[in-house]
Amino acid sequence: MNFPDLPRMTVLSVFTGTGGLDCGLEVAGLETVGCIELDHLCRRSIEENRPNWKLLDSADVLVAAKTLRPADVGLARRELDVLAGGPPCQPFSVAGQWTSSGRRGMDDDRARTVAAMLDLVEVFLPRTVVIENVAGFLRGKISALPFVENRLDEINELHGTAYRLHAQIVDAADYGVPQHRRRVIAVATREGVPFALPKPTFAEHPITAWDAIGDLKEATVPACKGGWTDLLPSIPEGGNYQYLTARGGGSELFGYRTRYWSFLLKLAKDKPSWTLPASPGPSTGPFHWANRPLSARERMRLQSFPDDWQPVGSYGEQVKQIGNATPPLLGEVIGRALVSQVLAPGVTYPRDATLLRPRLGAIPAAVPPAPIPPRFELMVGQKTAHLGTGKGPAPRQAVVS
To answer: Could you tell me if 293 and 258 are in contact, meaning their C-beta atoms sit under 8 angstroms apart?
Structure first.
């Protein structure tokens, strides 16, 4: 995107994925000069959608941290404006608590990529560093916060910089993304300039799922898989399996809080989407209010990608890329804040240069839930509710014992 009133501002993208964060930074007037991405499908998606972004030969960040130099992207040390990326989130993700190994934070081998990203900070000494991740990345007992702060202190002492982390947990829906997605945005500025994201502008009146996908007419849509999805018509819009428990309004088929939250979870037209997962199971939502899985294009809209952006691969491979992406509109908000506060204060943007979607207007009424299919009627009856807190394997094991 061309902004004649803006100076050239460069981004080195780490863990680029399918390009969500960088797409948003681009709309804010920043130029991606290099991408470090290991996944071959994501690399192909970048090639298809942004052939002008340089895919670096050092695709593995662990290798790039040892071999990449500013000259490889046409810059000198301290010339890079932004080093941005989201390290693998699994070691810090709430979703990880439901796995047998649980969350391990910096003790997880995958967390070595965090150290590698900070090594690149020392190599380039960029004006700003942007890290996007799950909230647990910088919060809680296993967070990466002590490690990141200590590493930045080392860099400051060695190179006379003043990097200090400014971290904020946000819900992407508060900034106009039609999806609830809680993430931590951490920014460090080389000269110690304070940074803060703008105040949320959509917290009270968010962009809805209807605004995002209500006008889409998909020629083909993915089919439901697995027997439980036959229950989707029996769950109201915006609800999940808990409607079919003793504390819901439908037939009692399940014990309260005995399933994961996204089990048979449906979109509501008048609210933002729930968080889109990268690897949903056959009964994992959010599902469309029409009682089916979302198409790849619908998922892209709910993530705020522009319509001309198309990930490569099969449906499942596209779903993974989309679910792992940073919402581009959130990237745009971050980019504009970087420009206005640090990189080029005082600049203005054309009013139409944004990924924010317009509202569609009147939202159709929700369809009432239907009775459960006859084949589930034998399951109806009193069920035991979850005895624990619903916060991971330990409570689940307690129920069994």
So the answer is: no
Contact yes or no for 166/186 (Cβ under 8 A): yes
307: left (phi over 0), alpha (psi -120 to 50) or beta: alpha
Mean pLDDT for 299-328 is 97
Token pair 């002590």 is found at 146
Six-digit token string for 366: 């929700």
What distance, in Å, lies between the first and last C-alpha atoms of the chain? 59
Check whether 99 has a pLDDT greater than 90: no
Torsional class of 229: left (φ above 0), alpha (ψ -120 to 50), beta (otherwise) = alpha
Q: 82 pairs with which residues across the strands?
A: 11, 128
Tally: H helices and E strands in the chain: 10, 6
* pLDDT for 97 beyond 60: no
From the candidate CATH numbers 1.10.3720.10, 3.40.50.970, 3.40.50.460, 3.40.50.150, the one assigned to the domain spanning 10-205+309-343: 3.40.50.150
Q: How confident is the model at residue 140 (pLDDT cuts 50, 70, 90)?
A: confident
> What is the domain partition of the chain in residue ranges?
10-205+309-343
Q: Which of 34, 46, 15 is nearest to 310 (CA)?
A: 46
| Residue 217 amino acid letter | K
